[in-house]
Amino acid sequence: MKRSRRKSREEILKEKMPTGVKGLDHLLSGGVNRNNSLLIEGPPGSGKSTFAIQMLYQGAKLFKEPGILVAFEEFPNQIYQEYADYGFDLAQMEKENLLRVIWTEPRKVLDGSTGKEDLIGRIIRDMGAKRLVIDSISHFKRVTNKESELREILHRILNNFKMQSVNAILVKEIDPGPGDSISFEEYAVDASIRLVNRLSGSTGENQRAIQIRKTRGQKHISGTHPFEFQRDGIQVFPHLRPVDIESLIPPKQTNARKIPTGVPGLDSLIGGGFEEASVNLVVGYSGTGKTTLARRFLHSHLAQGLKALHLSFQEIEERFLRAAESFSIDFKTYRENDQFDFKHLSPVGLTPEKLLQDLTLRILKNKYDCMVIDSISDLNGRELVEKKVTKWVCMGGKYPNHKKEKSANFCAFGGAEYTGKAIENWPLPIVFTGFEIGRSILTGPELLKDSDDNPVARAYRLWFDKNEPGKKTFRRPSWDQTAILIAVRGTEPWWNLVDNGYNQVHDGGVNEWLDSPDRDQSYVVEKIPPEDVASTIEKLMTQKPKS
Question: Among positive and negative, which fits the CA dihedral 153, 155, 157, 163?
Fold first, then answer.
C-alpha cells in the first residue's frame, strides 16, 4: 500500500489558521480552516476575550499574519495594559503593522456589508489582514433586538469577511445557567467553541474547560478539555480518548524482563520483580512502608546507572532526602549526577490531563527508566478536607493589601503559585491573620519568668540566647501564637473579622484583598490593644497542663 505523503508546514498553513493557543490546535487538527468563521462563546469570566486576542496576537507574532481587533467596550490603551500581563505586546505588533485595535460602534461594522462606507474593509485591504476578532457580537443587539434581523446581519457580516479571505473570530456572552441551548449564531458560523466555568465536584476549584461544538469541513476532537490561564496566556490540556491511551501503552511482551524492586524477599514472591514497562500499585495503610518500598525501588534502579523520577504530592524534596538518608540512601549524589529528579506538585487544582502532559514532557526530555508517584491518593483530597477540617487559619500577607513586598509565608515550599492555588481552590472557610497582627503582639517577659520545666519557656530562652544575646528586653512578635489562638478559640474578644471579599496572591508573594460577596474568606483586624492579647497568649503558654 502506498503511504500518503506528510504535508509540509507551509502546506498546512495554506489550509489552516493555527490558533497559537497551546493544546487547542491539536484538538482542531492543526487549526481552523482558512477563511472560516469561529464563534467563541461562554459565561462571564470564562476567558472568551483572552482566547480571541491570543489567537490574534500569536497569529501576528508567530506567523506574521496581520490581524484586527474590533472592540465595542474597551479603549485600545485599556486592552494593551490588560494583556501585557501575559507578555502580549499588542502595541509593538501595531507598530509593525501586524495588528490594529479599533474601538467603534456595532453599526460601523454593519456598514461594510450594506454598501455604505466600509471602514473595516478598508483597513483589511490596507493591512492585508488575515484574522479579525469582534468582541463581542452580543452588542449587535444595540442595533436591533429582533432575532430574524440579527440572523440576517450576522450572515451578511460573515459573507463579507469570507469574500475578503479573512478568518473571523466572534466573541459572544452566554448566560451561566444550566442547559445546552444552541444559538442561531452557532448555525451561522463554520466553527464553534464553548467555554465552561464551573465549580468542580472533585477539587472544589473553579474549573475552566473548552468544548469544540462544530467544525465545518474539518475534523476535531470532541469532549470537554480543561484549560488554564498561565503566565504566557491560555493553555488547553486535551482530554485523552481511549484510542489516545491505547497508543501510549506498549504491546505486552510475552517474555518481559523482570525489574528488581530493591527488596529481595519481595522479588522472590513475585517471580523476580516487576515486569519491564509495567504500572504497579502499592496499597496499604498509613505507616506500612509504602514510601519506603518506593525509595528502595528507586535506589535499585539508580545503583545500576539508570535514571529515575520521584513525583510527590505531599513531601517536599528536603524532607524526602532527609528521610532517605536515615536508610543510608544518598539521593543527593544521584541528583548531582543528573540520574535522579524530584518533583513536588500541589494536587489542588491539578487535572489528570495537565498531570499527564507534564509527566509525558518530562519523560521524553529526560529519558527516565523508572518513576514513582507518591501518592495517587492525594489526587482527590477534597473529601478528606471536608471531613477532617472546619476552617483554615492562614498566617501570611498583609491586609487589606501587601503590594510593595512579598510575604515570606506565601513564598515558602514551592513559591507563591502554590499558595495562590491552595487559597483559590480551598473548599472551606479561610481566616487570614496578617503580618501586621502578629508583629504588634509582643510576648516573652512573663513567659521567661517560668522555669525550664515549661518547654515553651525553655524554647523562648534558647531563641533569645541565639538571636538576641545580651538584650535586656525579651519580646518577640507572636505570629504563630496568634494563628493558633484564632484556630482554637476563635477571634472574640480579641479581633474583628472583615469578610467582604477574598485574598488574591500574585506572583512574587504579594497579596491583595478584592471585593466579593461570594467567597468564604475573611481577615482579622485589631479590636483590643495588642498588649491585652499578648497577656492572654502568655497566660496560655505558662498554663500548666491538666493532670
Answer: negative
Residue 130 per-residue DSSP state: -
Determine phi and psi for 29, rounding to 5 degrees: 55, 40
| Percentage of residues in the chain having pLDDT higher than 70 | 87
CA-to-CA separations, 443 to 398, 476, 538, in angstroms, rounded: 20, 6, 7
Residue 458 burial (CB count, 10 A): 13
CA 236 – CA 176 distance, rounded (Å): 21
Q: Which one, of 67, 58, 38, lies nearest residue 172 by Cα?
A: 38
Element containing residue 408 per DSSP (H, E): helix 408-411
- Calpha distance 88→53 (Å, rounded): 9
The helix/strand/coil state of 280 is coil
Q: Which of 7-16, 201-210, 289-298 has the lowest mean pLDDT?
A: 201-210
- Nine-digit cell string for 532: 491585652
Read off the pTM: 0.61
Task: Give CA–CA dist 489/389, Å, rounded.
Answer: 15
Nearest CA-CA partner of 524 in 355, 334, 393: 393
| CA atoms 462, 467, 470, 475: torsion sign | negative
Q: What angle do CA 411, 413, 419 make, to 5 degrees?
A: 55
Pairing of strands 206-215, 191-199: antiparallel
1 pLDDT above the threshold of 50: no
Question: H/E/C letters for each residue in 338-386?
Answer: CCEEEEECCCCCCCHHHHHHHHHHHHHHHCCCEEEEECHHHHHCHHHHH
Q: What domains are there in the chain, each with its CATH number? A: 12-239 (3.40.50.300), 258-379 (3.40.50.300), 389-542 (3.90.245.10)
pLDDT at residue 92 greater than cutoff 90: yes
Across 142-188, the runs of DSSP E, i.e. the strands, are 167-173
Kindly report which listed range (225-239, 256-270, 276-290, 462-476) carries the lowest average pLDDT score: 462-476
The contacts of residue 467 (CB under 8 Å, 6+ apart) are: none
- Cβ contact 49:169 at 8 Å: no
**Per-residue pLDDT tens for 379-429?**
656 666 776 788 899 988 889 886 666 666 676 655 677 777 788 878 889
Q: Distance (Å, rounded) from C-alpha 349 to C-alpha 421?
A: 7
Q: Positive or negative, the Cα torsion across 137, 140, 146, 150?
A: negative
Per residue in 156-211, pLDDT tens? Answer: 899 999 999 999 999 999 876 555 667 889 999 999 999 988 765 444 556 789 99
| The three cell numbers locating residue 130 | 488575515
Q: Give the relative orientation of helices 290-302 and 317-325 as an angle to the nearest 10 degrees.
A: 80
**3-state secondary structure labels for all residues of 51-83:** HHHHHHHHHHHHHCCCEEEEECCCCHHHHHHHH
Per-residue pLDDT reduced to its tens digit, 483-510: 999 998 999 999 999 988 888 887 777 8
